[in-house]
Task: structure prediction
Amino acid sequence: MSPYHHGNLRAALLDEAEQRLGNGELSLRELARAIGVSHGAPRRHFAGKQALLEALAEEGFIRLGRTLEAAAADGDFTARLAALARAYVHFATSHGALLDLMFAGKHRSEGLEAAADRAFAAPLALIADAQAAGEVVAGDPERVAKVAFAAVHGLAALAGAGVLEADDALIDETVERLVLGLKPR
Amino acid sequence: MSPYHHGNLRAALLDEAEQRLGNGELSLRELARAIGVSHGAPRRHFAGKQALLEALAEEGFIRLGRTLEAAAADGDFTARLAALARAYVHFATSHGALLDLMFAGKHRSEGLEAAADRAFAAPLALIADAQAAGEVVAGDPERVAKVAFAAVHGLAALAGAGVLEADDALIDETVERLVLGLKPR
DNA sequence: ACCTGAACACCGTTCAAGT
DNA sequence: ACCTGAACACCGTTCAAGT
Result:
């Protein structure tokens, strides 16, 4: 046991980092200690602490994207939007620190931007579908999707930060108001 | 010159900290150096780094509250909501890192919670007024305000993080959709 | 009351050396 | 190819001592 080569150090570092995220500051040396590897070892897999955090954020977008995609799969427009909103808020409340990391910075790499765009693909498609079905006001789908996404993101972010308690009733009310506001007239 | 007592070290530390916020990690020693005081000096005014950051966040809520209050002062419901949304987004885009700090953590002290509540007083009052005027659906004002606030906060947070470009047209469209969605029927 | 400066235990990053 | 361990320049926090 205790092989010289860990074999999966990259994944182990990301796992360990996510578990410790949100409990104060994160230290690379502490991660290495917990995994049982020397403090210099992470350098083989990540250029530095920032690179590790960025990889974690990217992984977060990939997971969020999968979750949203699955949630928005079935039902009519309102049902799909409600499922998407619930999934988003649930992600935020159970991975609050990760969501912070994903949307923090302003210094976003291309990889991170691409991952974020992919995560937002399902919401965007939902809006475009609803426009095609005449359930949502016409216009640039990206623009309309931004309005809808911002509303849901706001709820998720506030819930994840503990500012708000976003129970299903509040989520559904938000979705209801959003559907009404987006209706063509 | 170079008096033994700085005289206003607390305020100087907060100022310096805010200026450097968002440019990588913030160090107490670096703040002290920039101000020209020993690295132990901040300890007289803040229990530690976290305490300084929390004071900064609290100051942020106070300023945001003042801004929102001023913005929501005049006009009809839609105009007041639009002004409030623009002011919020402007705050977010010009103080992105500060907004992150204000809503980061989940470990919010009482002082911070109180400051946040005070900042949200103007939006809450706006919703309550609009309900009284029959322009917004009836029901618990806090609940309705949460829905409205989340939508605006989402736009501000995404704009502040650089995920979105929230020009006035997008803000106004968000407000328009929100007003429609909140209308009694 | 307010600040200094040494001390301590950490940290991220680098890099020669090991396997 | 992957990891170790010493080295370096930092950091936050503590605390006796100065004014």
